[in-house]
Specification:
This protein has 489 residues and is α/β, with parallel strands linked by helices. It has three domains: 203 residues, FAD/NAD(P)-binding domain; 147 residues, Polyamine Oxidase, Chain A, domain 2; 87 residues, Orthogonal Bundle (Guanine Nucleotide Dissociation Inhibitor, domain 1). It contains 14 helices and 19 strands. Strands 1, 2, 10, 11, 12, 13 and 19 form a seven-stranded mixed β-sheet that branches. It has a seven-stranded mixed β-sheet with strand order 8-7-15-16-17-14-18. A three-stranded antiparallel β-sheet has the order 5-9-6, with no helix packed on it. Helix 2 packs parallel to helix 14, helix 4 crosses helix 8 and helix 6 crosses helix 8. The radius of gyration is 23 Å and the shape is globular. The N terminus and C terminus are likely disordered.
Length: 489
C-alpha cells in the first residue's frame, strides 16, 4: 500500500497526539546539549538552524561518523514546522502542513518515524467567491470558473508556460531575469480577465506579488516542482498528529548534538575552519552548514564571508508573506451539506480554505491562508484574536450564517516571526539570478541548506529535506579523502 494513504484509527491518533504533546513538554527525549560559558566546542561540522534542513543534515553527517553541533536560536526545533495544542486540546499545525504525492523524502521520513499520513478530505463541491463583492458560487471540484473564451486563452497561456519551463536554461536569464513575472504572464494572455485568473493564484502560492520577482524566478520555481500540473498535487495529505512529529523524531535522532536557545551572532574564518559565536557559547568547526532563511544571513554575521557578487542578490531577496489561520469546530458540519470545505477566493484576503479535519471526524478543522500583499496589509495591524474572530465571521458569510461558530482557533503571522521573517519561503528579486547565478553554491568551509536553496520542491518541506541531504553530502564528498577520527580536511 502507498504509505501516503496509511489508515489511522482513533486509538492511533490519540497515541500520536499524546506522544507529540510529551515531546513538546520535553518528555521522552534526550535533553539538548548545554554549552558552558567560556567553553569552546570543537567539532567537525557546525549546523546553524534546526529546521527540517538542519536536522536532516545533522543526522546524515552523524551517520557518516562526524561530530556535529546543531545550533538553534529558538527554544524548539522545526523552524516553520510548528504544531501546538490549543486550549481545547486540539493539536494544530501553525506552519507547514501538507504533503504531496511526489514528496518521496517526506513520505519516507514519516514512514520511518511511524507517523501515519491521512488524505485531505476532498469529497463534495467547492465554493468560489467571485471578486469585487460578487456572489459565492457552488461548483463541482474540477469545474472551471472561466467561460469558454477565457478557457481557450488560459489553455494557450499555460501551454506556452509549460513550453518555457521544459526548455528553461541558464542562457535565458539575460532576458527572463530582467522581466517581471507579472509582465511575462501578461504577455502570454490575450484577455485581462484571463491574466487575473492566472496571476492571482500564482502570486498567492508564491506569497509575493508577481511584479517583485522575475519571469526566470517564476519558471525556475515551477520547474522545481515538476511543472504547472504538479502544483495541483501538492496538498494531498497531512499528518493528523502534527507535522512537528517529524522534527521531534529527528530531534531524538540527533540527540545531544542539538543546542537550543543558541542564537548565532557571528561567523568568522579561522585558520582551521570557522569560529561561531552564539548566545549559548562558542563553536569551532572545520565546516559550517547555514540552514536558516537567506534573509537572516546578516543577522547571524555570515555576510562578510560571502562573495561580493552575492550581496546584491541577497539584498534583493523578497520574503514571502503568509498568515495561516486554523478554525476548529465540534464537527465538520460542511460535509453534511455536500461540501468539501474547500473555498477558492483568489481575489480576497483569505484566498484559499481547505478541510484539515482529523480522519475520524472527531472535530471539524478549516485552514485559511492569507499571503502576498494581503498578508503584508494585515501583518502587524491585527492581533491573533482579532484575526481569528474576523476569519470566523468570513467563513459564516461564505458558507451561510446559520452554521456554528468555532470552538477554538489560532492565527500565525509568519511575517512577524523574527526567526522566519515570512513564509512559505523567500524569493529572489528581479535580477537576482543574473547577479549571483551561483547563489547558495558551496564555498568551503561554508555550505548552505534550507528550502530556499533546494533545486527540487523549493519552498516545500520536501525541498527542505532534500537541501539538508545535499548539503551534508557536499561536505562529505568534498572531504572524502581527508576524513579522520576527529576532523575533516
Amino acid at each position: 500500500m502507498d504509505p501516503l494513504w496509511l489508515s489511522m484509527d482513533r486509538r492511533q491518533a490519540i497515541l500520536q497526539l499524546t506522544a507529540l504533546a510529551g515531546l513538546v513538554r520535553g518528555e521522552g527525549r534526550r535533553a539538548p546539549a548545554q554549552q558552558r560559558p567560556g567553553r569552546v566546542d570543537r567539532v567537525d561540522v557546525a549546523v546553524i538552524g534546526a529546521g527540517l534542513a538542519g536536522l536532516t543534515a545533522t543526522r546524515r553527517l552523524q551517520a557518516a561518523g562526524l561530530t556535529v553541533r546543531l545550533l538553534e536560536a529558538r527554544a524548539r526545533v522545526g523552524g516553520r514546522v510548528h504544531s501546538t495544542a490549543l486550549t481545547t486540546g486540539h493539536l494544530v499545525d501553525r506552519g507547514a502542513q501538507f504533503v504531496g504525492r511526489d514528496h518521496a523524502r517526506l513520505i519516507a521520513l514519516a514512514a520511518e518515524a511511524q507517523l501515519p499520513l491521512a488524505p485531505l478530505f476532498k469529497t463534495g463541491e467547492t465554493l468560489r467567491v467571485e471578486p469585487a463583492g460578487g456572489p459565492v458560487v457552488r461548483q463541482a471540484r474540477d469545474a472551471s470558473p472561466l467561460g469558454w473564451l477565457r478557457l481557450l486563452d488560459a489553455a494557450q497561456a499555460l501551454f506556452r508556460l509549460d513550453w518555457d519551463i521544459d526548455r528553461l536554461a541558464p542562457a535565458d536569464r539575460a532576458t527572463l531575469d530582467t522581466q517581471s513575472a507579472h509582465a511575462y504572464v501578461s504577455a502570454r494572455t490575450l484577455r485581462k480577465d484571463t491574466f487575473a485568473a492566472l496571476a492571482a493564484p500564482a502570486a498567492n502560492e508564491l506569497c509575493v506579488p508577481l511584479d517583485e520577482i522575475s519571469a526566470y524566478e517564476l519558471l525556475h520555481q515551477l520547474r522545481s516542482v515538476g511543472g504547472v500540473d504538479a502544483t495541483r498535487e501538492t496538498e494531498q495529505a497531512f499528518l493528523p498528529g502534527g507535522a512537528a512529529g517529524l522534527t521531534a523524531y529527528l530531534q531524538r535522532q540527533v540527540g545531544d548534538a542539538l543546542v537550543l536557545n543558541a542564537r548565532v551572532t557571528r561567523v568568522a574564518r579561522v585558520p582551521d575552519g570557522v569560529a561561531i559565536e552564539s548566545t549559548a557559547g562558542s563553536v569551532r568547526a572545520r565546516r559550517v552548514i547555514v540552514a536558516v532563511p537567506p534573509q537572516l544571513y546578516g543577522d547571524i554575521g555570515v555576510l562578510p564571508l560571502l562573495p561580493a557578487s552575492w550581496r546584491p542578490a541577497l539584498a534583493g531577496i523578497r520574503p514571502g508573506a503568509a498568515i495561516k489561520t486554523v478554525l476548529v469546530y465540534e464537527r465538520p458540519w460542511w460535509r453534511a451539506a455536500g461540501l468539501s470545505g474547500t473555498v477558492d477566493s483568489p481575489a480576497h484576503p483569505f484566498h484559499s480554505v481547505v478541510d484539515g479535519s482529523p480522519p475520524d471526524g472527531s472535530a471539524g478543522v478549516l485552514v485559511l491562508f492569507t499571503t502576498g500583499r494581503a498578508a503584508r496589509r494585515l501583518s502587524g495591524a491585527t492581533t491573533e484574536e482579532v484575526r481569528v474572530g474576523h476569519d470566523g465571521q468570513w467563513i459564516r458569510r461564505v458558507f451561510g450564517r446559520s452554521h456554528p461558530i468555532p470552538v477554538a482557533g489560532c492565527s500565525v503571522d509568519w511575517n512577524a516571526d523574527a526567526l522566519s521573517v515570512g513564509g512559505y519561503a523567500s524569493r529572489r528579486g528581479i535580477g537576482g539570478w543574473l547577479a549571483a547565478p551561483d547563489l547558495f553554491a558551496a564555498r568551503p568551509p561554508l555550505h548552505f541548506a534550507g528550502t530556499e536553496t533546494a533545486t527540487q520542491w523549493r519552498s516545500f518541506m520536501e525541498g527542505a529535506i532534500a537541501s539538508g541531504e545535499r548539503a551534508a553530502d557536499d561536505v562529505l564528498g568534498r572531504s572524502a579523502t581527508s576524513l579522520s577520527a576527529r576532523g575533516i580536511g
